[in-house]
Amino acid sequence: MDKKIEKKYWNRKRIFYIAGGTLVALLLGYNLIFADHRSKLNVEKDKVTISKVSQGPFDDYIAVTAVVLPLNTIRLDAIQGGYVTRKFLEGGSMVKKGDSILRLENQHVMMDYVNHETEIYRLINELENSKLSLKQNHYESEKTLADLDRQISQAKDLYERNKQLVDERIVSRQEFNKNKYELEGLTHQRDIQAQYQQFQEENARVQVAQLSGTVARSQRNLALMKENLSNLVVRAPVDGQLSSIDVEVGSNIVEGQNLGQIDDITGFKMRATVDEHYLTRVFAGLKATFEFNGGNYELTVTKVYPEIKDGSFAVDLNFGKQAPDGIRRGQSSPIRLELGKSASATLLPSGGFFSDTGGNWVYVVDNSGRRAVKRNITLGRKNPMYYEVLEGLHPGEQVITSSYETFGNKEVLEF
């Protein structure tokens, strides 16, 4: 009789399957819980720039390019238009105040001057004739009054004699009355003549005054026209260097047109272009330094031009004491423009990473030195050498500061 053999539950095969499944489960659990799932990218360590974060003084300045300019530049504008008939000097010439630079010709201005001059002579002749006529009329009136006074004196004398004789009936009443009426008529005629003479003289004086005023105004106008004629010769308003003259013989110049400029070479200044980002931080009084021929020279911002052009604005800077010897107009050089006082800060060397991250994150090398991990940071001020670190980094840590353009958005870089 066969005996039934019971099959063991923990046989070798079952143990093998259970052990295998448990191992797989443990591996999956470890991978889910402990494994690094961050995106990675292998890079060559010698192809990137690694910089060390440090603690030190942060100098708040920017480096800008400045151009040497004369301290003062005087524009030469045409006061009077015309054709250029002669050019006395070329650009680059040294000039003294009053030196002739250009001669212009304007026939219209010349004709106006001649016509106005002729009109003034006519007015002057008319004025003199009026004065002469006034004197003649005065003498004629005086003569007439004198004749009337003589006639009145004779009539009065006759009247007085006849007055006595008429009472004695030697002279008739009719003759007496005739003498009386004649005396009264002559007296009345003299009064009228005196009033007429006064009216004539007052009227003549008014006419003379008006003509005198017209002549004076015309003479002033003629003086201005003469000055316009003198403006046809363009002269140097100051001593200096004629840096440019932009016209040639035969050119037609209009009133107000710029002809060139004169530089005052007794002093120099510098004009720098600054990124518009710093517009609110740049103002008159800021200091700057300029290196030339091995020496450092101090500059001071004297004027800020608020107009933004091509993403930048301009500032003028004057030398603190004296411009360096040998400096020339048009030279360009970097200058260090101070924006604030130095202060202790955590410093991150500048690099190409900023253009890719905007300074919001960087790759920080871990202690093993075999990989760099993405980390969010906060940066503050910037100068040409360093960024001021506000949050996210500590002195002694190492950061990739070269460009991140080829890294995509990987979280870990492995070397």
UniProtKB/TrEMBL annotation:
What Pfam families is this protein classified in? RND-MFP_C (PF25967)
**Where does the secretion signal sit in this chain?**
none
| One CC-aspect GO term | membrane
Going by the UniProt record, its keywords in alphabetical order are:
Coiled coil, Membrane, Transmembrane, Transmembrane helix
- Which GO-annotated molecular functions does the record name? transmembrane transporter activity
The portions of this protein that span the membrane are 15-35
Looking up InterPro entries in the UniProt record yields:
MdtA-like_C (IPR058627), RND_pump_MFP (IPR006143), UPF0194_transport (IPR050465)
Chief location category: other
> Would I find Transmembrane helix among this entry's keywords?
yes
Record-given protein name? HlyD family secretion protein
The entry sums up its family as follows:
Belongs to the membrane fusion protein (MFP) (TC 8.A.1) family.
Name the Gene3D superfamilies for this protein.
2.40.30.170, 2.40.420.20, 2.40.50.100, Helix hairpin bin (1.10.287.470)
Where found?
Cell envelope
User: Which organism is this entry from?
Assistant: Chitinophaga costaii
- Is Transmembrane tagged as a keyword? yes
